[in-house]
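Run folding on both entries below.
>entry_1
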Amino acid sequence: MKGNQRNPYIFGKPIYKEYQLYGRKNIIDEIKNNFISNRRITLLHVQRRIGKTSLITCLPQFFTEEKNSFKFVTFSFQGYKTKSLPKILHYLADDIAATIPGLPKQVRELADTSLNFFHLFLPTIINEYLSGKKLVLLLDEFDVLEEDKTTDHQEQGKKLFDELEKAVKQEEKLFAILVFGRSLKDMTYLEEFLQKEDQYPIEVGLLDKESTKNLIVTPVKGILEYEKSAIDTISGLSAGHPSLTQLLCANIFQHCREKEIRNVTDNEVWLILDKAMEEGEAVLNGFLEPFKDDEKLFFRAVAEAQERPGDEQLQTIIRNWQSVGKRLFEGYRFLEEKEDKTGYKIKVELVRLWLVKKYPLSDEERLQMDQIPKKNQNLPETNNNGKIPTEKGNSNSQGPNQIAKILALFVVFLTLAFLGIYSFSLIRKSGNSQASRSECSRLLGEINLALGDAKERSRVIEKIRNEWSRKEESLDLQCPYDYELDRKYNELLYRYGWNKINIGEYDKAIKPWCEITEEHEKFREVENILLDWISSDTKLSMENKEKVIEALIEHNESGKNCLAYSFTSERNKNRLSEEQQKLSEQKKQVRNESLYQQAQKRINAFEFEKAVEVYCQISEDYEKFPDIQTELQSWLSNNSNLYDDEREKVREKLTQLKNNCPVSPLK
């Protein structure tokens, strides 16, 4: 294998191309069957951390064979749980309008109330602006609307669903796909809908064995050969989890590239395991992140019980904590029941190994778990407030030096706190630290706000540039919470660019558009627009074209690299240089023509001396240059139509400007 061979596995960011998405054909087929059967609302139940963003992003690409009969609009409710229903529909209307170029402002303003959104705005969009296509609203994180139980926002999900159900009955070309992760038991109105319509939710979970094998083998066909033992080991570790399969394979590929290995055995898999767990910590942490404290503790206990099946204390704890186990089993599906029905085991072996290595149970935690939790009782009070240990080394000793240890830890805490405050901004800008959920939620809220409010876009983009960096790590990698931050931020940059274009500031669109990453669905459109702007037959004015070229050069030479028009391609760099030269010539000729017209006005006013001053500013490459020389020569002759004093003034002016007048016949 060549040392510079690109790693074909995708980990740490969503998949944006449908041919790179493995094992989801049956799900796509089920959605298509629903559409064919005219089932207007499809419920997509997606397990957490299972590659939902990739599926949603690629989903519209699977409908090209349907003769472009569907128009997809994707909208996520993440970050909107505290918003009112009219406000949410306002943002949704913005996203729908943004997919239709040139949509009149008055059409967008039809969605001024919740009622008008469904009864005026959607029908107008569908019947007048989609050229016969069917509108599919792909609504992600629908269950977020169930999280805010305040009086003002109670039953928001049900209210929206009821309106949506009415709308699809009224509009035969309106479809909706609702994506959610919570149990249907938490959303009884969806259960009732399924029963009434004789439907069932489409489940998105782990890949089957064949799909997992394809994901392992296909990307490196002709480059690496996997032995069956290696495939079985990877499958056993990842259990068909798409992201974790990609994680393992990406590390195997890197290892084989460095060692120049072509044949992959199970030995290579075990060699990269520690490194893979380290690199995949953001995703692995995602398995714990949604849990309550008692659920985290139980999850870790199950991991260790699988490691030591003869540990009777752990087995007893797990049996006594069945109420917690049931919540995890039904709500998150990260656990499965043991065959003998005596307890649980963790579905994904890689997750279990990581838990045992990273967060082993301390003796104190074991003692605390000996207390049988009552129904709805939270975790018994612990010396770490029920938090997961920060590292493997939990102290289990209860000796006489405990107070000294606590004091030492307190000093360390103060030191770390001081250093943390001092270096927070540097860490954030380095792109090497995973942000907290609260930071990521604030970022998501800012982006959503700016997507809906054009006045906020400049401020939010500048804030993100200053506080977050995408140079080393994507936003999604820094915030592994399925927020789709990169997709949304790319869309924000795209819309802000159009804001500038719409007021004629084409060069001001360069900076935001240059930051859009190639995974964005409109990246190719941006590339084509930039090429059009700098082409010889562009519709831009020379002034705007010149500003655009200068902005592209400035961005690329600043070290930031314009992804949509990069100087890593010499062709791009040379093209700009050539267009700059052409512009310079065009500007010179435009100036010459302008000067010529000014001179004609002077001549018509019999101001021949002033006409000479203007003629003398014209360059030699002007097409009428020889004619001007002939004209000036005739003015100096005795047979000219000029009066003697006029002829004399012309001669004096030409003599005065002799060295600064290319067109002078006296040279």
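>entry_2
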Amino acid sequence: MMKRTTWLAIGWILFVSPILAKTPPLHQVEVYNVRSYTHPSYTRIVIDVGQLREYIFNELKSPDRVYIDVFQAKLNPILHGKTIYVNNPYIHRIRIAQKTPQTVRVVVDLNFKQIKRYEVFPLPDPFRIVLDIYPRPQEKASPETPPQPARPTKNGYTLARQLGLGVHRIVLDPGHGGRDPGCIGRSGLKEKDVVLDICLRLKKLLETKNQFEVILTRESDIFIPLENRTIIANQKRADLYISIHANANPNRKKRGVMSFYLNFSPDPTVNAIAARENATSSKNIGKMKEIILKIVQNSKIKESQELARAIQKSLVNRLKKHFSAIKDMGVKGGPFWVLIGAEMPSVLVEISHLSNPTEESRLKTARYRQEIAYGIYEGIINYVKSLGKG
């Protein structure tokens, strides 16, 4: 049988299949979406349920398939009988049906011979069931196969920088959204609204002045799970990925601008910021260490540092020209889920502190937001110019 892993929906306890993730009897809820994303190393299928529900999964042969049954659930009408075709060699399609009046079944038709393993696990807030499918390693590429992504050179930079390859497509990620407001200032100003407005301003600057193609992970007040944001950037084949956020601190005197790239950090202040942005507790960040240490060994870590430095410098300088008491909090590595998985240089920018009365007041104004957008814009331009100087 295919190697498979699953996690109990409550308690995160590893156990063997056939699998049953149990919850108390509850009213029927709606399965409102089924979606898939293909990474270079695996494919993720997500069943959006919204509320914790009992589910099972199993595999069958002749033909090869894996199915997940979600109990006390009904399909959104638009999903009835829907088939999703997946564009990769090891997954054929995803079929969705109301198996019984109380059970939704999602069937994934695949090829076990081409699959190394798969994992089924729940994610909270909102509740969703995830199926990750990992293919077997491919045979060595023939000479006609396109070159693989650039490896780090001796100076730590990618071949892309040394060749002066340009930036054409940028994905901007306005943090939070929908049911997740982010941090909220004393006046009720919400992070999700501020950063969306700034991203829209930044998009306009980038598109009108330099003909970049700019894509936002969201253009309205909707919720997007953290892990989906870099997936969007990867699927769009972005050259840069920039996630925009507003900071908060229990000490209302704290203020300033800070930029991050993905890395593990021993700094408790950085980890506290990451814990808030990750919507998790600080103690869980330690579990990310192994994942992050593997990821940052690729060729993008140096580029991400340089992008963060360019944006931080330009943003701080821009704000200091027009406003007093602007504090430069620097550039640091941090364990941010919203940066994990990005296949391009990626940064997270904390544009100011909503918890600080002065900065909250400024963030209410169009002028301050526009200067933030322009500062980030200038940083991006400076970074792009530097690509030809490697």
